[in-house]
Amino acid sequence: MLDLNSELKQLVKCCQLHKARQMFDKMPHRDEVSWTTIIAGYVNSSDPFEALILFLNLWIQPGLQKDQFMISVALKACALGMNIYFGKSLHGFSVKSSLVDSVFVSSSLVDMYMKVGKVEHGCKVFEEMETRNVVSWTSIIAGLVHGGYSMKAIHTQTIKQGFDESLFVINTLASMYNKCGKPSYVMRLFQKMRMPDVVSWTTLITTYVQMGEEENAVDAFRRMRKSGVSANQYTFAAVISACANLVVKEWGQQIHGHVLHLDIISWSTIIAVYSQAGYAKEAFDYLSWMRREGPKPNEFALASLLSVSGSMALLEPGKQVHAHVLCIGLDHEAMVHSALISMYSKCGSLKEASKIFDGTKTNDIISWTAMINGYAEHGCSQKAIHLFEKIPSIGLKPDYVTFIGVLTACSHAGLVDQGFHYFMSMIDEYRISPSKEHYGCMIDVLCRAGRLSEAELMIRSMPFCSDDVVWSTLLRACRVHGDVDRGRRAAEKILSLDPNSAGTHITLANIYAAKGRWEEVAYIRKLMKSKGVIKEPGWSWINVNDHLHSFVSADQSHLQSEDIIAILKLLSSRRGDSLLETCSSEDVED
């Protein structure tokens, strides 16, 4: 039994929950450890629904003792799933069985009540605890902050109880002050820490970024590395955000001067910074330099380069990164594998993306999502939907990004009913709360189908403040379908958020022009002139001999403009028309 439980724990620890569940279901005998392990696996995988179903099955099993660890895990599932009713039942059982006296159970109760918004219940459990640990204090602080309670009162209580020396509690307090916009308090707490950990440093770096002090954020990152503390994904997210701002300010040259002293993490961070900021050339330059002078590139750096290659449609540089990935054997890393699929998809090479996807030896939802999104973006809606429908059969569960892909596919194919089916299954079956992006997809589904009144109703009934993105979707649809009144309402909403939106003014004027309402057109043009609203030209680019050329409409700034125009004239004569003439259109302004 011990060996089986050890193997089960290892599978759960390695995030192979599907295999763990298969093993669990085939076990001839399951003890308390087996049940707690598999339930904890589902909790850690953010699947509280399945965790609680398993716990109910455990409950009716004869001869099994419900101990403090088992109840604590079930309470975590209740907190994650916002299941107050089940949580209260567990609370009652804990009192009857005296398990509530365990600091593990009582702390989990506090955490559960705070996360479901029952602050009074959480405080009552906390006050009745005979002993309180770091977890209980952290839970109560975080819950009270979320409930809008006084920061000073919370901090005072931690000092009175002697918990101000605990690093966990101090980190929670620092995070509290950071989220509430009190950076000076974060600094003071950090200075009092004897041995800051990664959470402490990350909070400090994030605070500097929020204050606009990017140099201090990067300096804090350096000091953290010197102190021997290893960065995590949240640290990198914070420092990359700082560096991206500094790159825009041409601060990147300062990094360049210290490049020979960088380690693998620093190299990867710099490449990611340039990639995220859209500096493709600089990112690839650093990759070349890294290969000559530094350590071997890791999956983080390569995935960043593949991302910028895809976003800028740089197929050849993307292929070069792919070749390097194959050389160092990182093609089966989930992060790189999904980035390759995404890069080829965004560059229009769906055949190559499909080949990479089909050749994978392991299944992960990130790669499946990348392929679904690739098909959806290129109008291959049925392929995207077919792939989405296969996900449950291989033991995976779609995440919120996967649903964006399949909803986009439904939008492009005009599948309104099927789109709503997926939208509701996301909520009811997978317990995923729709984000603005999901609502945006559904609004696009309705707009493309010409169901503009339903689209407007959905925008107004969203559980979020509607932004200019969804209203712009409706405005464009109103232009296509000639809905003047609704278009005017959409434009008014956009202009209340962004008064100088040139595109909105122009689209509304075009709606009026299509209906021959020239007085309104003249008014819009006059309004744009009085506000000084000018439409920024759209940039295009083309890669020639590994050199990126960018240009705008009627641009003659290129050194070879005369040669380019001569070639265009030659092509025009062969086509029998003029590529250089402005196309006639009903648009007020292109």
UniProtKB/TrEMBL annotation:
Pfam families with a match to the protein in the record: E_motif, PPR, PPR_1, PPR_2
GO biological process: RNA modification
PPR repeat windows: 102-136, 197-231, 263-297, 364-398
Keywords noted in UniProt: Repeat
Coiled-coil intervals, chain numbering: none
GO molecular function: RNA binding
Domain of life, per lineage: Eukaryota
Annotated signal sequence range: none
Protein name as catalogued: Pentatricopeptide repeat-containing protein
